[in-house]
Amino acid sequence: MSNVVVLDNGGGLLKAGLGGDLDPSVIIPNCLYRPLSAKKWLHPSPISISTADAATEAPSDLDLTSASVRRPIDRGYLINPDLQRDIWSHLFTSLLHVNPSNSSLLLTEPLFTLPSIQHATDEIVFEDFNFASLYVSDSPSLVHFYEASRRPTSLLSRAQCSLVVDCGFSFTHAAPVFQNFTLNYAVKRIDLGGKALTNYLKELVSYRALNVMDETFIMDDVKEKLCFVSLNVPRDLQIARKPGKENLFRCTYVLPDGISYTRGFVKNPDDAKRYLSLTDEVSSPSLGVKKDVIELDVSEKTEDRKRIDLTKNEFDLTNERFLVPEMIFHPADLGMNQAGLAECIVRAVNSCHPHLHPVLYESIVLTGGSTLFHNFAERLEKELRPLVPDECQVKITTQEDPILGAWRGGSLLASSPSFEAMCVTKAEYEELGSVRCRKRFLH
Amino acid sequence: MDDDATNPFRRMSSRTRKVAPKMVAALASSDNRTQAALARLEALENDNAGVEVVENIDDEDASLDDDDQAYIQKRQSKGTKRKTRQAKALEAKKAPKTFMELLHEANLESLPSHVPSYSKAAVGPPSSTSRRHFCTVCGFAASYTCIRCGIRFCSSRCQNIHNDTRCLKFVA
């Protein structure tokens, strides 16, 4: 086999590259968009690999203001195969430059994909693109595979067992993985992810300040730059009430005006960082690493931007900054009849064999883009500790690049010698059909 | 809210209110508070592309006069007649199904109880029923409930804003 295409087909971002590489060569939003100025649906331009400055450094001159978006994936599952086919064919021909008929495909699929969707996926892969062979995997097992091979001496790798918390774009899963297989009877899901959070922020800002209901891309940027997880909600609510300089959370985001700049930005990046001084006294030393990332993110071109003063196209955020990510920990506050993330993890662990419980609590791996909120892991540990039996240790591992975790695992798997034997070939598909082939993947 | 205190003139929203079709249905039903809450949650999963089409159709219907009604009915009935069964099937094929439709089609309830499935993986209700309420106007802890629509607010200032803008108008 010449090459393996590894494709992590997420609801928000599509990560693709060749098996064996360290990083995916292409990351693009898994959608088509139509700016106000265009009549046609366009393919978004790829995002650069270093995610820290992805949004600001993207080369596209296109104005994303009020762009409509069409996504092939809804609630995490593929509902529009035709649209997905469009996006994939753009990906394979113009971005990756691969010839599907002499390569195999490693594809990620969400857990519990419905049979009809699996069937549609197989049809696209084998009948439209003519891939030579296909292997379908789920992201928790790939993340586990990657973490286990990265730290061979850790408990996670010695016990071959971990609890992967995947908080992505469409939903959040707590999935126990054992011997590289996701224990699907124990998986628990919260129907909240990055998309719902962005939409919630949109709704709040639209009601309180400016109508931004159509600004999906801009509000994504606002969420990524300004939102963080609070370690003490009542205290932070008190602080957010204070006027003037004492309010550590107030900061202003400037919307693009379409003339001098086509991207929104944080008006005063120092204001946006002021909340960090608060968290120092409570948190653990592991915070130091993360701080650098945030500083890197906002410390550009501040001098000339400060001077720009707009009367209308900006809005203030105060308590929205931490109340939005708060929803993952307490979906009930939104009126959702679902338990929060900590309880979700406990329920997932309790569905496993009791012998696994201590190991699972000690090897929790956080992955997915929504775990990038500042203080996410600290808050989770704080909520989880009281719920876990005293004799168990809680240890939460964060990945250094949670968006790419599943892809890297896939890349490793694709370069392992046994990979070819695990695939279903086109000939087998044609002979046996979709259903029988799927049995091979033990789904 | 602090914002309002600093601004001498309260900014009024200039946008047109869009009431989603689901909201209309929710308002018509008997237990509309829970229905509206559900519809609001549903709206969190929306993309902004699909909405436009629906809006246009709504506007068209809304602008009709009573005089035109008969003519339109005629036109509509003519239109439906012309559509053959085949054309309808094609149209249905073209429009992608929503995930909820696919889920319904998969008929997961018919699976034996030990088989893990999408519906069984949901985390389920929280163990404690206590819920924090946040003011829909300013976001701080809310101790009062609107007697008409059940939405929360924290002070009389927020109540006034709520009554002016959002009460019983479930903005999608």
From TrEMBL, chain A:
Organism from which the protein derives: Citrullus colocynthis
Domain of life: Eukaryota
Pfam family, one: Actin
Organism ancestry: Eukaryota, Viridiplantae, Streptophyta, Embryophyta, Tracheophyta
Family: Belongs to the actin family.
InterPro entries referenced in this protein's UniProt entry, alphabetically: Actin (IPR004000), ATPase_NBD (IPR043129)
Gene3D superfamilies in UniProt: 3.30.420.40, Actin, Chain A, domain 2, Actin, Chain A, domain 4
SMART domains membership: ACTIN
Protein's name in the database: Actin-related protein 6
UniProtKB/TrEMBL annotation, chain B:
Coiled coil regions in record: none
PROSITE patterns given in the database record: ZF_HIT
Ranges where the HIT-type domain occurs: 135-167
Biased composition (Acidic residues): 59-69
Biased composition (Basic residues): 75-86
Region called Disordered, residue ranges: 1-20, 59-89
The keyword Iron is annotated on this UniProt entry: no
Listed CDD domains: zf-HIT_ZNHIT1_like (cd21437)
Keyword Zinc among record annotations: yes
TM segment ranges: none
InterPro entries per UniProt: Vps71/ZNHIT1 (IPR039723), Znf_HIT (IPR007529)
Keywords noted in UniProt: Metal-binding, Zinc, Zinc-finger
Matching PANTHER family: ZINC FINGER HIT DOMAIN CONTAINING PROTEIN 1
Protein name: HIT-type domain-containing protein
